[in-house]
Description:
The structure holds two protein chains of two kinds. Chain A is mostly helical. Chain A has helices spanning 2-18, 24-31, 67-74, 80-84, 90-102, 112-123, and strands spanning 40-41, 133-135. In chain A, helix 5 (90-102) packs across helix 6. The model of chain A is unreliable at 1-36 (pLDDT under 50). Chain B is mostly beta strands. Chain B has helices at 16-25, 29-36, 106-111, 155-162, 192-198, 247-250; strands at 5-6, 12-14, 47-51, 56-58, 76-77, 91-96, 102-105, 115-122, 145-154, 170-175, 188-191, 200-205, 208-209, 219-221, 234-240, 254-256, 271-273, 280-285, 289-291, 296-303, 309-315, 323-324, 326-327, 337-343, 349-359, 382-389. Chain B has a five-stranded mixed beta sheet. In chain B, helix 1 runs antiparallel to helix 2. The longest helix of chain B has 10 residues, at 16-25. In chain B, 48% of the residues are buried. The interface between A and B is large, with 61 and 56 residues. Strand 1 (40-41) of chain A pairs antiparallel with strand 2 (12-14) of chain B, so a sheet runs across the interface.
Amino acid sequence: MRRTRALSAVALALAALLVCPNDASARRGKKKKSAAKTRVVVAAPRFDPHLPLLGTKLAEFPPGPAKALADQACLACHSVDLVAQQRLTEKQWGAEVTKMAGWGADLPADRREELIGYLVKNFGPDAGPWEPVVTRPAGR
Amino acid sequence: MKKGHRDSGGGVSIDRRRFLALSAAALVPGAALAALTDGIPVARRRLLQRNGYALDAETPLDALTTYLTPNDLFFVRHHWTPQYSGHKGWTLTVDGEVERALRLTAQDLRRLPRTTVTCVLQCAGNGRGLFQPSIPGVQWKYGAVGNARWGGVRLRDLLDQAGVKPAARHLHAFGSDKPPVRVPPFHRSVEIEKVLADAIVADEMNGEPLPALHGGPARLVVPGWAGEHWMKWLERLSVQAEPQKGFYMDTAYRYPKEIGPPGVVIPASDMRPVTELVVKSNVTEAPPRARVGSAVVLRGFAFSGAPDIARVEVTEDEGQTWQPAELDSQHDPWAWRLWSFRWSPSTPGRRTLHVRATDSQGAVQPRVAPWNPSGYLHNGWHPAVIEVDA
C-alpha cells in the first residue's frame, strides 16, 4: 500500500508538469489518487513549434500581369492553395472561372480570358509539382 | 493487463506498470513525450494544409496509425469559414413535418439519452488528387479520413421528442457556415430511414466536447456515409417530404449510375447522390528498406460502407497471389480495422507490395478506382515500395 502511495505521489508530480491546466479530466484524475490502480492523465498534444500554425501560412499567386486580377477574383472566398494545387486544362479552368463568376467572383467580363490564360500558364497540366503546407495542428 | 487507452480528457490513462515503464522512458524526453501522448511521435503530429482558408487539411498517413484518430490530428474540411458561435446562446431547432417543433440548448441536448458511435469519417473527395485525368477541386491524397468515437444523441430519440409525421422522408440539415457573395449555401439532406437507423447529433469527439474545427457545438454523424452528410455547426434540422435542393445536392456530390470512360462528362440525369463509403484500405507504415530473409511489418487501416471488414490481403506479384494480413481485434460497425502484415522478402531489388480489403458484404477493393467526373470515393490498391537489400 505504501508503495502504491509512493507511486501515486510520483505520478501526480509528473502529471502536474504535463497536465493542461484547463483539462477537467485532469481534475477527475487527481480525485482518484487513492485508488489502488493509479490513473494519471497527461497532456496530449505536442508539436514541432517551428511549423506554421494551420491556416496561417498563405501563399501568393505567381508574378505576372494578371496576378492582381487573380487576387481580386479568387481570394475573397479561398486561399491561393486551392488554385495552385490543381492541374487543369484550358477547358477545365474556363469552366471553373465561369462557375466562380456566376457565384459573384469580382471579375470584369472583359478580363475573363486574361484570367483563364494566367491560370493555364501557371496551373495547367504541365505545371510542376505542388506540395501542401506542413502545419502545426490548431489543437483543441 | 490492459494497455493504455484514451481517457475522456483526450490524454492517456495508464495503469501502474505502464507508468513505471513511462517513468523509465522519461530519461529520454523525446521518447517519453511520444509515449505520453497517444503513441504518435511528435515528428508525425502535423496536418497538410490544402487550403489556408476556408480551411482544408489532411492527416499524413503516418499519423493515422491508431484506432482512434486524435482530435487535433483529424482532417479538416470547411466549405467556407464558419461562424464559431461556441455554446453560449447556441440552439438547435427541429421543425418541419413534426408534431412539435423543438428548440434545444446545448444543456437540453445533454439531458436526452446519450450514445456513442465509433466510426470512420471520410470526405467523399478523399483521393481526388490520385485520379487521372485531373479533376477540379481539393486535391486530397490519402488523409481526408479518420476514425473517432462520437458521443451525442440518437436522431431517433431526438425526433421522437418532436413526433415525426407520416409525410417525413428526408432530414434537411443546416449549419451556421454562411457562404460569401452569391455562392450557394451548403445545405444537405439525408434519407429518413438512414437517419432513424444510425445517425446521431454529436457534441463529443473522442470524449472531448466537439471541437469547433470539427463542427462544434454539434454536428451530424451518419455512420458509413460520406462526410458531406455529416453537417457541421448544426443550427437547424427540418424534417421534409422532399430532399433538399441546391448546388450541393443536385450538382455536387453525385456519382455516375454507370461508370464511363475516364475524362468523359456524364449527364446529370445519369448521376446519383454519393451516399455509402466504398471498401478501401491504406498502408500507414512500411519500412523504406528491408533485407532478404529478415521480416518487416507493414501496417494500415481498412474500412467500408459495409459495417465491417472481412479481410485484408497483400500481394507482392501484382495481384496474382494474395497473403492474408492480420486484423486487429478492435472494431465497431463502420469503424476502421487496423491491420498488420509480416513480410519476409525473398529476393533483392525494388519491390512493390499492394494491399486490398474485402468487406463483410463481399465487396472487394479494385485495383484501379473508377474515374468519375467529381473525383469521389477513390479506393484503388495502395502500393508500398520497399528497397530490398541482398
